[in-house]
Amino acid sequence: MEHSTDKKILYTAEKLFAEKGFDATSTRDIAKSAGVNVSMISYYFGSKEKLFEEIFKVRMKEGQSFAYEILENPQLNEWEKLIKIIGNYINRVKTLPEFYSILQSVYNINNSGNEQILSFLRTSKIGYIKIYQRILEEGCENGVFTKKPDLFFLHSVIVGTVFYSKQGMNLYRELSGNQSDEYYNIYYDNLTQNLTILLKDLLGYEQEN
């Protein structure tokens, strides 16, 4: 698929920031890898910092747009909505490793980094909490869920489980001794299955026959 010049720059920068870090990646590095003139970065984004911010803006908008679309789907019950939103989250972590590596690095700097990005992250987190709140409340009202766990704990269970699982994957692979090419897919399938089991118990959901 052929990307527009601005998207080519953005995706190239995302890859390089993940590999080398923000400080060690220059605009010339990005331009060379993207096959564009370095002036194009200033033209489309203004600066390396603004390009970094745009990566977060684009990626977080993608995830939340999907979640809101699912939330408003009248053909799905609350459990189905929750599982589709979480499934998309896990798939994004799996297929966008560069972005989630950058995201982890931002968290690792103890909130002392780019204030605009930290604001994006806070807004995104609040957005997902509100999505889960609506699913939880409507699911209880409609009898889909028989338990109502603490909202913030529910959010922490979902995000924490997925995010930490990504961080630990290489260590777990080493300890398991499984070096097959299929390990990556099996790992994320197991993550999805086990998180589903955990959430069923947490929410008191019993699947209809």
TrEMBL record:
GO terms for molecular function: DNA binding. Residues 26-45 bind DNA. Residues 3-63 form the HTH tetR-type domain. SUPFAM superfamilies: Homeodomain-like, Tetracyclin repressor-like, C-terminal domain. Gene3D superfamilies: Tetracycline Repressor, domain 2. The keyword ATP-binding does not apply. InterPro entries: Homeodomain-like_sf (IPR009057), HTH-type_TetR-like_transc_reg (IPR050109), HTH_TetR (IPR001647), Tet_transcr_reg_TetR-rel_C_sf (IPR036271). Keywords: DNA-binding. This is TetR/AcrR family transcriptional regulator. It comes from Cloacibacterium normanense.
